[in-house]
Design a protein that fits this description.
about 300 residues, alpha/beta, TIM Barrel, eight-stranded parallel β-sheet, globular
Amino acid sequence: MKYRRLGKTELKVSVVGVGTWQFGGAWGKDFTQDEVDAILDKAKEEGINLLDTAECYGHHLSESFIGSYIDRTKSRDQWVIATKFGHNHADRNSTTVNYWSAAEVLKQLDDSLKSLRTDYVDLYQFHSGPDEVFDNDELWTALDKQVQAGKIRNLGISIGSNDNLHQTAQATERNAKAIQVVYNRLDVTPENRVFPSCIDQDLGVLARVPLASGYLSGKYKPGAEFAANDVRSRHDKEQTAEKLRRVEDIRKTEVPEGANMAEWALAWCLKHPAVTCVIPGCKSPEQVETNARAASFDFVSDNHPQAWK
């Protein structure tokens, strides 16, 4: 495993992390604690130390799985835990709750800490909210107070649109030190404006969906269909078909002969000088092991600007 500095946080993070949206049950599988434990055991064995979750992944379910694991293994200090706020799904029928208000976000923070069984989170991220709620000084003042209190070690921004320069450009002003953004071989939009801004501000970058929702994993051929309880079944069918056609072309023209496509796709993201870490999801220890091998792919240089010294 290789490690990089996450922007100005000075956190030492593995270049491959574990994305945990799947633990909330949205990707065609309901997880047990034993299954999550096996995945996290393998991640630790591979040298992975960054876990990315959110309060809305099964309404704190993903966080609770992680919290149970770190409590059982007494391993809190071995992990960099990133979670998010803004999409509390417990009461979505309510028309009165503002999920982005300072008061509501502080409640989400306390609920996340309780679920994670920890008294601090390493990276607390604004989760894909619109600009009008981002531009709320009261919210960022309240969050900064939680940084001072030690409940939050660092703030981050998970931008919803991967060309959202409005939020990215304000990161330093908001005391945010990392940007999370969709970036993969099928979607290179952040290279145009977001990544240059991140480099200028020395922001860490977490590349989410680095396997393009699994389309770049190498498992799916043109014509593939997904189960009704898999979030990909709700993707536009024409766009899905086009993505699978592009993936097949990439496989033939760009992926070295004999290379694992998932490893190649993750390493492809990691070669960009702005990217600190990729956070692919995984459903098994075997997938964790495959993902971790991306750190050793020829693309991934020890001379990366954020390489940990």
